[in-house]
């Protein structure tokens, strides 16, 4: 087991947790293909459904598959956290990624069974707070990411964090091919957080129109705005327009983090990152991982040939 890869992945990639997109089928396909699959707990309507999802994922995977990862909201208003932590203790995902709050509430539970805690961060300020809390890793959301996005480039973010943090770094933001994965690892990251590339897969829960919009889009078809949730995020411009939202005048709707019951109003407002230009068809996730693996190895060989004495 590599010191820098306790998850023992085929490729150092997390299929990032995507709101209303990631479900058991996508998570299982990712793990079977050799990368870590993840999902946000808020994609389930009830704690009973979450239990079913976690049981399905755990039952489908073998020791030969990559481990799965769970994304939990730790915001103080999120009412399901205690029940979700009980399920985490029951099913023991290899890592838990916390979001929208301090990672401290999950540390004892996850570390108790030997799991890793990553904190989702979009700024150096939040990264330092999470590091001080004792997390094992940081999921660094950089400029170019879909959904809630950061402002630093992936390279600048990783470099700055390495000044004070020796733990694991998963970096996301516009990385959509194997060469990008290799570049992120060379720059000091341990893993790449990739979402948009896996959005138009056969296993994704995204609506067909959503998948087709991602395939047709380029980075010029994105809009960065805080008008949807009150926080800067990257959206497919066409979906925002279809929803009748004027991002220049709309008052932020905001999200209620007390549960998943408000998901309907987000079903037709679709997030995507700058990796949209790389997807060309709806295909099995395993095919994408095969492409990423080939591109990653080619990038490593190219680097080695350029640096050979």
From TrEMBL:
E.C. number: 1.13.12.-
Cited InterPro entries: Aldolase_TIM, NMO
Protein name per the record: Nitronate monooxygenase
Family to which this protein belongs: Belongs to the nitronate monooxygenase family. NMO class I subfamily.
Keyword terms: Flavoprotein, FMN, Monooxygenase, Oxidoreductase
Domain of life assignment: Bacteria
UniProt keyword tRNA-binding, yes or no: no
GO molecular function: monooxygenase activity
Pfam families in the cross-refs: NMO
Organism lineage: Bacteria, Pseudomonadati, Pseudomonadota, Gammaproteobacteria, Cellvibrionales
Enzyme kind, highest EC tier: oxidoreductase
């Amino acid at each position: 087991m590599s010191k820098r890869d306790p998850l023992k992945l085929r490729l150092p990639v997390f299929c990032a947790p995507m709101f209303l997109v990631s479900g058991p089928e996508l998570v299982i396909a990712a793990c079977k293909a050799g990368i870590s699959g993840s999902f946000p707990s808020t994609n389930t309507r009830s704690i009973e459904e979450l239990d079913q999802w976690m049981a399905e994922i755990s039952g489908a995977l073998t020791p030969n598959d990559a481990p799965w990862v769970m994304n939990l909201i730790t915001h103080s208003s999120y009412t399901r956290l205690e029940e979700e932590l009980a399920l985490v203790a029951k099913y023991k995902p290899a890592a838990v990624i916390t979001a929208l709050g301090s990672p401290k509430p999950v540390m004892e539970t996850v570390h108790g069974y030997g799991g890793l805690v990553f904190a989702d961060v979009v700024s150096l300020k939040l990264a330092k707070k999470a590091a001080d809390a004792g997390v094992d890793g940081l999921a660094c959301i950089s400029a170019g990411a879909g959904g809630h996005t950061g402002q630093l480039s992936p390279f600048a973010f990783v470099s700055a964090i390495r000044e004070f943090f020796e733990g694991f770094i998963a970096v996301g933001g516009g990385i959509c091919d194997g060469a990008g994965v290799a570049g992120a690892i060379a720059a000091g990251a341990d893993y790449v957080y990739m979402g948009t590339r896996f959005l138009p897969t056969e296993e994704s829960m995204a609506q067909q129109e959503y998948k087709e919009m991602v395939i047709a889009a380029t980075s010029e078809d994105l809009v960065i705005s805080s008008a949807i949730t009150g926080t800067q995020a990257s959206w497919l411009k066409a979906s925002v327009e279809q929803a009748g939202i004027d991002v220049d005048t709309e008052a932020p709707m905001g999200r209620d983090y007390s549960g998943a019951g408000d998901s309907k109003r987000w079903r037709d407002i679709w997030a995507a990152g700058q990796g949209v230009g790389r997807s060309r068809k709806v295909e099995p996730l395993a095919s994408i991982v095969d492409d990423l693996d080939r591109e990653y190895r080619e990038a490593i060989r190219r680097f080695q040939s350029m640096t050979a004495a």
